[in-house]
Amino acid sequence: MPVSSTRDVTDGSSAVDTPTVPMTPALEAYLWTIYTLVEDGVVPRRVRISERLGQAGPTVTQTVARLTSAGLVSVGTDHHVRLTDLGLRHAVVVARRHRLAERMLTEILGMPAQAAHAEALRWQHVMTEDVERSIAATLDDPRRSPWGNPVPGLDLLGLAPAEPVSAVPLVDLGPPGTTVTGTVALIAESGQDDAPLMDRLISAGIIPGARVTVRVRRNHFEVRGLDVVDLPRNRGHVLRVDTGAAGPSRGSLRVV
């Protein structure tokens, strides 16, 4: 789901104004991971965080404990790791930096979008608010990343906020046998992290703005653009399709 409020994202607590430990790129990476898990509709638990970051269970447990002590997350009896209000504020800043950096790298520097994503994973830890404001002022419309993801927290920079994405993830299109035609609205961050998957999607023309036909199968989703890509059901959250929007037969994103 798009993260546009604290509902289902935070634990509802009123946190302190600043964390009790210095923020580091490693801690910010955890907040980013929890944030993007929620965007994908995946319940953030330590095992899911471990899978996303490729870190061992004990390392994740120790880092989550540090985040808890710092007032950035809480862990429920159901092992659900929730951002506190303070944690969400920090996560929003990291996500905003990442997606503005992607836009700058692609539109101003001319970098291919898939390379810009990897580079932005570094930029998201070092950009200042002044740089963010300059990027936003230079862009025509800074409310979406090159891959269609909303840029959060723009209102904190005095800009018009991005509207939540209303497009449907593949997992919610319907039961097996359903066939839907629509426009690709976004590719989730977890999909962008999967280089082989991105190569397949790009080769098939399955990028934001492209018209696709999706057939829901029992164990996978058959997505047809210029070619067919089969996505297993457990990856059905990486692609969202707007079933009501007309669009071009192929998106205009620069990917090579």
From TrEMBL:
Keywords: DNA-binding, Iron, Transcription, Transcription regulation. One of its GO terms (biological process) is negative regulation of DNA-templated transcription. GO terms for cellular component: cytoplasm. InterPro entries: DtxR_MntR_Metal-Reg (IPR050536), Fe_dep_repressor (IPR001367), Fe_dep_repressor_sf (IPR036421), FeoA_core_dom (IPR038157), HTH_DTXR (IPR022687), Iron_dep_repressor (IPR022689), Transcriptional_repressor_C (IPR008988), WH-like_DNA-bd_sf (IPR036388). It holds the Pfam family Fe_dep_repr_C. PROSITE patterns: HTH_DTXR (PS50944). It is found in: Cytoplasm. Its main location: cytoplasm. Residues 1-17 have a biased composition (Polar residues). Residues 1-20 are annotated as: Disordered. Residues 23-84 form the HTH dtxR-type domain. GO terms for molecular function: DNA binding; DNA-binding transcription factor activity; protein dimerization activity; transition metal ion binding. Gene3D superfamilies: 2.30.30.90, Iron dependent repressor, metal binding and dimerisation domain, Winged helix-like DNA-binding domain superfamily/Winged helix DNA-binding domain. Belongs to the DtxR/MntR family. Homodimer. This is Metal-dependent transcriptional regulator. It comes from Gordonia desulfuricans.
